[in-house]
Each structure stands twice: as structure tokens, then as C-alpha cells.
Amino acid sequence: MLFSKVDRLDRIVNRGENMQCTVHTPNAYLCTHQAALLPDWQQPVASVLVVLQPCPISLFDRTTETEVYKDLLRQQFLQFGESIVRLLQRQSHHATRFDPRTGLPIDATAGTLRLHDVAVVRSLLGYDTLDCGGCLTIVHPQWQGAVYPATLLSSAPPVTVERAMQQVENVVLASGR
């Protein structure tokens, strides 16, 4: 059976229904605005890792409960992404997670622009979005509004980011987490 690139990456990285990860080349917006997003990077962005995590409840409404879940999912992404970033940096690549809450890079100097994860997902995956009180939210084909997006950028080629994800996933699976 043949799998698309997205299906194959999902199989590598997903632990059950806990996460959907896809690796892409950057869109025109990221290429054009790299200096405003990541002013210290001397190498171009070559890969975009999109991480989508399902949430037990829809994030269409802003409530105390949704904020608790968003914070938990943010922390999970930050931990998962940190392992990938460190591995790529040890291989002499630029890599940074973007904080889903602020849109600012965590592992690099911030520029004058913020990254909007929902816009990245819409551009790279083609998922619909919904305006919920002035905040764009992803409409995932399976999870609908119960999805939390996050983004990691790297100067490493997509295949290198894919390998880094595999290595991180293997460590996580071996540890039983």
C-alpha cells in the first residue's frame, strides 16, 4: 500500500492519537519574511515542522477549561520540540520552536514579526479555519476544532528533520512515555 508523505510522517511520529506531525518546505511567506522572524539566522529556513495535537474539547470557545488544555498541550509541544531542536543544533543546523501563545521563537532571537501557527497550518496543509471571536481556529478534518497547532522551523532539509523526529520518537517509545 502506498502512503502519502503526510501519512508516512504521521505513522512515524504519532503515538496513538496524541500527535500529528508533518514536515514541509517553507511557504513563500516564510521565505520572504525570514529576516523579520529570525534576524540572526544566516542560513535560510529549509523545513517547517507542523505539530498538531488533539484536545479532548473543542477550542472554538475561550473558557477556563480550554485555556487549561491549551497550556497543557503547549507544554507537551515545548518538550517534544526541544528534543528535536537540540538534536538539529548538535548537527550544526539552525532550529527553533515558536511559542504558540506568543508567536515568538523560543530558541532564537525574536525579530519584529510573530509567527501565526494557524496561518502556517492553513497554508501548508490546506485546512479550513474559523474566526472565533477575532481568533482564527483550525478546523481539522478528523478532530474539528479540538486541535492545538504548533510550529518548529529549521535550516535542516526536511529529510533531516524527519530523521530527528524518528530519533526523538524512538527515545520516547523506549522510555514508555
Number of domains: 1
Helix content: 40-55%
Task: Please provide the count of β strands.
Answer: 6
Count every helix, treating DSSP H or I runs of 4 or more residues as helices: 6
Element-by-element helix/strand order = HEHHEHEHEEEH
- How far apart the termini lie comes to 30 Å
What is the molecular shape?
Answer: globular
As residue ranges, the low-confidence spans are 1-16
Write down the overall mean pLDDT.
88
- What strand line-up does the widest sheet have? 1-2-6-3
Approximate strand percentage: 15-25%
Nearest-angstrom radius of gyration? Answer: 15 Å
User: How many strands, which pairing sense, and closed or not: the largest β-sheet?
Assistant: 4 strands, antiparallel
Class inferred from helices and paired strands: alpha+beta
Describe the structure.
Helices cover 41% and strands 20% of the residues. With 177 residues, the protein is of the alpha+beta class. Helix 4 crosses helix 6. The longest helix is centred in the middle third of the chain and has 27 residues. The radius of gyration is 15 Å and the shape is globular. The N terminus is likely disordered.
Descriptive terms for the model:
177 residues; alpha+beta; 4-stranded antiparallel sheet; two-stranded antiparallel sheet; 41% helix; globular; disordered N terminus
